[in-house]
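Justification of resources, computational component.

The compute hours requested in this renewal are based largely on the per-chain cost of generating structure records like the one below. Each record pairs the submitted sequence with a full C-alpha cell output. That output is archived, and it is also reused by downstream analysis tasks.
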Amino acid sequence: MSNHQSDNASNKSVKKAVLVLFHNDLRIEDNETLVKAATLAKSNQGNLMLIYADFLADCIQSRESRQAYHFNEMGAARQQFLSESLADLDRSLQRLGNRLLYLSPSYLSKSHLSPDKVESALNTFTKLCQLIEQQQVTDICVSHTADYNQNKGYAALQSKYPQIIWHRQSTHMLFADLPTQDLPKSFTQFRKKVEASHDLLNADDEVAVFPTPKSLPPMPDALMGHSKYLFKTQASNEQALSFKGGETNAMIHLTHYFDSAAPRTYKTTRNALDDWTHSTKFSPWLAKGCLSVKILLNRLRHYEREIIANESTYWIWFELLWREYFYWYAIEHGSNLFLFKGIGHQLPATHFDDQRLQQWQNGRMAACHILSSMPA
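The structure output for this chain reads:
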C-alpha cells in the first residue's frame, strides 16, 4: 500500500471533530459557544476538541526584537490568574467527559536556543493547524471578542481553511449586537439610548442565560493520552493573591458580595482602595469570561427586588454599561486604537524618560509629573 493510500485509510478512520477555541469565555455556565459546539458534535456523531490557544504568546515572540521599553506583556499576577482559570475550566470539563487542551509556543524566546532547538520551537498557530488537519475539523466555534490580536489569529485560520464552517456566539457582553442604531460618541449618550430601549435592570423577565451542559462529546481518542497537549496546572506564585482565577471562585465571590451589605453603599465607596468590599471586584473574572455578565446582572436584579434598590445598586448597572460601551467602542475602531496618533490623530510626547517610566510602572508617579510631561 502506498503512503497516499495509507493516509486516506487513516483519515477515514478518524472521526470528524468540532473545535472550540476558548478565549474570553473560560466557564461552563451560560456559555453559548460550548453549547453550540456540543450540539454540533453530537449531531455529527463526532468528537469535540476544547482548546485554549495562546495567541498572545505568538505576538510576544514576534515583537521581542522590536520592543523598545522591554516591559512584560503579561505580569506574574495576571499570568497566575489565567493559569488558575484554565485549571478550573479543565476540572469542569473533565466532570462533563472532556479535557482542556492548551497550546502555546514551545519557547517564548529563541535568543538563548541552540540552532537545533530553534527548529522545533513551533508557535501556537502552527500547532493548532496540525491538530485541525490531523483531527479533520469541520466546524470551529468561538465567542465574539474585541481583542485585535485574537481576531487576527481567527482571520488567519479562516484564510488557511476556507472549507471549515465558523460559528460565532456572544458570550461576553449583555447584548449580542450593538444595542443602538450607531455607536454614540460619548458614554452618556449611549447609556441614555440603552436605558430608553433596553433597560435590562428593570425588565419584567430575567435576562436569558444558556443552560449548563450535563455532558460533552469526547475528545479524539488519539489525544486522550497525548500529554503534550493536555492542560497541566502550573506552579503558582508563592505570593498569595486576593484574586483567585476560575469560574468556581467567581461564583463564590458573586455569592459573598450580594450576601453582604456592600452593594447598598457601592457608589460612595467604589473609588476607595483600602477595603476589599469597597468595590465589586468582578472585573478580572468578567474579563476572562469566568463570570457571565448576564448571571451577574440577574443577581443584581434579585438584590434590588429582595433587599434594596438605591443609587448604589443602580451604579453597579451603570458600570456594566461602561464596560458594554467600551467593548463596542473597540469593535467600532478596531486597529485604529493602536495607531501612533490614536483615533484623535494627535501625536503623543515621544521623549523617553526611564526614571519616569519606572515611577509610572511602580505607581509612584505624582499626578503633577504626569500632567507636566504631557504635550500642550
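Residues 1-10, 107-121, 370-376 have pLDDT under 50 and may be disordered. The radius of gyration is 23 Å.
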